[in-house]
Amino acid sequence: MKAYVFPxxxxxxxxxxxxxxxxxxxxxxxxxxxxxxxGFHITRLMFDGTEEDLRQTKxxxxxIFLHSVIxxxxxxxxxxxMVAGHSLGEFSSLVANKTLSxxxxxxxxxxxxxAMQKACEAEPSTMAAILGLDxxxxxxxxxxxxxxxxxxxxxxxxxxVISGSIASIDKxxxxxxxxxxxxxxxxxxxxxxxxxxxxxxxxxLETAIMNTPFATPLCPVYQNFTALPTSDPDTIRTxxxxxxxxxxxxxxxxxxxxxxxxxSFTEVGPGKVLQGLIKKVDRDIPTSSA
Length: 290
Known about the structure:
This protein is α/β, with parallel strands linked by helices and 290 residues long.
C-alpha cells in the first residue's frame, strides 16, 4: 500500500508554490481562490516574500497547506490508500482524502493559525529539540518540572520535541543535556505548540471544527492524537481538536502505517523533513517526494 504524508510547520521556503502556479491552470485557480478566501494575497508572500514573512504563523500554516493540497491535485491518478500529516499537515491529508473540501480546509487552517498566534502572544513560551535520549527519560524529566513542559512531537526514535513555558524549557534543556542528550536546543518558534498552553486556541478551533462539514474519507487517516487509522468523521473531528494540546505521535504513526501494510511513503508538500524522519523508523522503506 502506498502511503501519502503531509508536512507541518517549518517546511516553508521563499518561492514555495510558484512553479505550481505557473505550470498548472487548476493550481493557479486554487491559489487565486485562496487569496479570496483569506482576504489577502498569500501568493505574494509565498512567491516573493522573505523567510521572515513566511515565519509568521498566520502565513506559514496556510502557505504549507496550500502548497501540499495543490501539489496533491497535480498527482496523476491520485488514489490514496492511507494518509497522515504532521501537525498542520493533518489538515492537508484530510483535504487530500476528501474528508474536507478545499475551501473548508483552508478556512480551518487560517482560523487555527490565528488562534495559535493569539495564544502565543498571550503567554511567552517556546519549544526545544532533544536528540539521543530514550523517550521515557525525556517524559520523566518533563513530569518532574513544576511549570508547564511536555513532550510535543515524537518525531522519530531518539528525536523528541518538548514544549512549555520559557523557564521550564530552560530547566529541561539543562537537565537533559546533563543526562547525555546529543543535542538539547531551543527552537526558534512562536510558542509552545501541542501543549496545555494552547488551550485557548483549542477552544476556539473546536467551535469552528464542529460547525464544518466532514465527509467519510476515501481512505483511513492516521491521526496525530492516537497514531491510529480512522475513517469515521466524528472521530476525526474529535482527534483534530485534541491535537492542539496533545503531542504529535509521528513515530508511532509511521510504525502503525508500516504494520498495516505501507510499502512506500510519498511526501506531498514543501521539503523532505518527513522522509528523513520515516527513514529513522525504517531505513529500508522507499520514500519519495510528490
